[in-house]
Specification:
150 residues, mainly beta, Lipocalin, 11-stranded antiparallel β-sheet, 42% strand
Length: 150
């Protein structure tokens, strides 16, 4: 998959929704709670956000909804796609057919960063190797969100 397709892929994934914390005793995703506004979306140091584009993720009660280009969608289970126990925390999100987004994420204060790459798992022998090692738009699609103040 070309890197030019990644922004469309990831925005589509976010528009589908991402999150449910599960029924376990500990909410491993509590740090993600809040309303997040996209402030950066770039690949290879080139911005992919349109002028005044400010879509949001709302994460509440273990669920997330996305409003990307004014299209809200249903939430999915976070526990199925996020692994907060890895270093770096990982996101593995099947998209369509044999394409899967392999990425990493982190929360620092009121900033959420996600970086990843879409992989055709049918043709890639080691798709895990495509997961970025750092938050750099030269390693994949870089998204940065800011948490809104309450």
């Amino acid at each position: 998959m070309t890197k030019r397709v990644l922004p469309v892929l990831f925005v589509a994934l976010l528009a589908l929704g991402l999150c449910h914390a599960g029924d376990g005793p500990k909410n491993e995703f509590a740090e993600l709670e809040g309303t997040w506004t996209i402030v950066k979306m770039e690949i290879e140091d080139k911005s992919l956000l349109e002028k005044n584009e400010k879509w949001k993720l709302v994460i509440k009660d273990g669920k997330v909804t996305a409003d990307a280009k004014n299209r809200s969608q249903e939430a999915l289970q976070l526990a199925k796609i996020l692994d907060p126990g890895k270093k770096a925390k990982s996101v593995t999100l099947p998209y369509e057919g044999k394409v899967t987004f392999y990425g990493i994420y982190e929360v620092k204060g009121d900033e959420l960063r996600v970086c990843g790459d879409g992989v055709d798992t049918a043709s890639e022998k080691n798709p895990e190797a495509r997961r970025p090692k750092k938050f750099d738009s030269k390693e994949g699609l870089l998204l940065v969100f800011k948490r809104e103040k309450k």
